[in-house]
Amino acid sequence: MVVTKIDEAEYNRASELKAFDETKAGVKGLVDSGVTEIPRIFRHPEEISISSRDSGYSTIPVIDLGGLKIEDSVKRKEIVERVREASETWGFFQIVNHGIPESVLEEMKDGVRRFHEQDTEVKKRFYTRDPTKPLVYNSNFDLYSAPSANWRDTFALMFSVDPPNPQDFPIILRDILVEYSNQTRRIGILLFELLSEVLGLNPDHFNGIDCAKGLAILGNYYPACPQPESEQVD
């Protein structure tokens, strides 16, 4: 889209952001309303769009945890070394064969979809920008500070030592949120054991100071874009 000086003069980004946010319907609400053109607030500056697509791609480290299912000290040392390398060079890594049942993963994905595709009036009860709420649903946590908005809606569940009351979760995905959080906590405990060993500490060191009690779950939803050919939208 070519932006003219007249376009710039008529464009009040702050008011458009506020109007979008106050609908509490997110990007899904735009799609449901039949929008045929991507609103200006979602368009990236041209220089950002071009540079982001010119950057190279790399493969992040993938660590197979399957070897931990058997008592094999040699295999465990190999995995600890992989964690060390990934942490030092990347700062993060992907894990496979973690033991979370595929049925749980699929049901969690379905739960995310169910939440975002339910009636807008039901979702509005959870729409907030208050991070202290048990579950935060909105579109773009950095809506008012980012140079452009992303074409997605998100719910976030975050807690530290004291988990929230499951009764505060949306009923449409309450059961799977509880099950998924239990499964990911188990994996968190294992990962903190490995990270402790990476640093030459007792395997229980990080878990002993409650590092594994924090949890963050994000459920992103990307509605169909009315202009999928556009290079200015993520």
UniProtKB/TrEMBL annotation:
Domain of life: Eukaryota
Tagged with keyword Oxidoreductase: yes
SUPFAM superfamilies named in the record: Clavaminate synthase-like (SSF51197)
UniProt keyword list: Iron, Metal-binding, Oxidoreductase
Positions of the Non-haem dioxygenase N-terminal domain: 60-166
Gene3D superfamilies referenced in this protein's UniProt entry, alphabetically: B-lactam Antibiotic, Isopenicillin N Synthase, Chain
The UniProt record lists the keyword Lipid biosynthesis: no
GO molecular function annotation: metal ion binding; oxidoreductase activity
InterPro entries, A to Z: DIOX_N, IPNS-like_sf
The protein's name: Non-haem dioxygenase N-terminal domain-containing protein
The species this protein was found in: Ficus carica
